[in-house]
Input
Amino acid sequence: MEATAIILAAGEGTRMKSSHAKVAHKILGKPMINWVVDATLAAGCPHIIVVVGSHADEVRAIIDASYQDAAATIECVEQTERLGTGHAVKVALEASGIVEGPVVVLNGDLPLIQPETIEHFAATVATGETAAAALSMLPPDPFGYGRIVLDDTGSLVEIVEQKDCTPEQAAIQECNAGCYAFDGAQLAAHIGDITNDNAQGEYYLPDMLAILREAGQHVTSFCCDDYRDALGVNSRTQLAELTAIARGRINEALMAEGVTFIDPSLAWIGPDCTVGRDTVIWPLTFMDGTCTIGEGCEVGPNTRLTNVTCGNNSSLNETVAIDVVIENEVTCGPRAYLRPGTHLLDRAHVGTHVEIKKSTIGEGSKVPHLSYIGDTTMGSGVNIGAGSITCNYDGVHKNPTTIGDNTFIGSNTMMVAPVNIGSNAVTGAGGTITKDVPDGALALERTDQRIIAGYTERKRARQ
Ligand code: UD1
Ligand code: CA
Output
């Protein structure tokens, strides 16, 4: 597929009432602009131009961070003045020097557009018979969208914006979706013909269809089978509506592949996450970024995972995890916090009110209650007693702790890093361990206990 894609993302997004770019707002953890860029990449567009303007730096930073591997394909072009969608395309054409070939133009606030639609659009103009095609839809409420005006034969005459509609035109149900395909030569030849003589004083890209038609070119529109693919986001309400649609589609697809949802309306799984069969998703589960969850797991309730890889038959109950790798048959929570760089090996257990950062918990090792483990490499079969923590931070540096296989850390042990505790070792409850503990040793760090006999009786007598 040889079409160039132009994605319009320079608008002010006034109706969002936000201090961020509209296209930076996320749907299921992923910025709206990335949904559109991903659709064009999936459609196979070899060259993608993103027009940035309002909050240009923020949008550029998102693109740069998200598409390092596709940097040669994606280019940002700045529209310094926002004079309308027609002007934005003019800026993109001038910056990129496009003079021919199919060009697909997409609004940046069209996150649920399908790659197949983009391919179909590009193919329509690729033959040279059609100069322009616009995607249309039949939404339940057309208010706010441009209306598709057809002639008696059903061919497209023009697109009229909501604010420019006569009452008759406002009654038209078929709306412009903001996805177009153009023959590049015709687009370049006529982009300068768009005027701003309209209710908003803007250069409207949809006017291009009537201009090309009047120039004797063939123009057309295709109505989307499912209007939900073509909804735009102008407000927080629409952002929530599209989030619900995307959530429903993703959860349906996962259920079709053998994932159980206790309630699919109460789980938010991002588009770049995979979940294996026979995994059960409990309510209030959120998965963002790139998560890969294996088979037969239990996830949730009250769980938020970001960039988590998890093997099979693991249970993540009331767990928050970011940039974490979890292997098989691991149990976490309730109330576990797994921070970046955590690696839980097979059958590890991280229990309640436990925080782990940048640490490896070995096979079958347990951190069951009220612990903080940071910058630690732990062997297999270790048991960490309740309330034990690694004191990994001396106020300046983060220091490492190592704990060997089958070691038993007594409750409320403070492991003052850097420190190495050997294998098959034991620390006595309440110890503050500042020196290395050899293999097989008991480390006791405790003052002798004093007994003051008859104390309570004497105290009461004094009162
Ligand atoms: C636009 C269409 C409307 C269509 C609707 C579909 C126009 C004039 N109208 O209206 O027919 O029904 O989308 O959702 O195109 N942008 C720029 N530069 C600008 C102005 C806008 O890059 O100068 C970008 C915006 O960031 C946005 C997109 O273009 O991603 C569409 O702009 P928006 O203001 O949202 O247009 P709508 O009023 O929704
Ligand atoms: Ca819009």
Q: What stands out?
A: The chain has a mean pLDDT of 97. The first strand starts at residue 4 and ends at 9. The two ends are 92 Å apart (CA to CA). The CA atoms of residues 425 and 441 lie 5 Å apart.
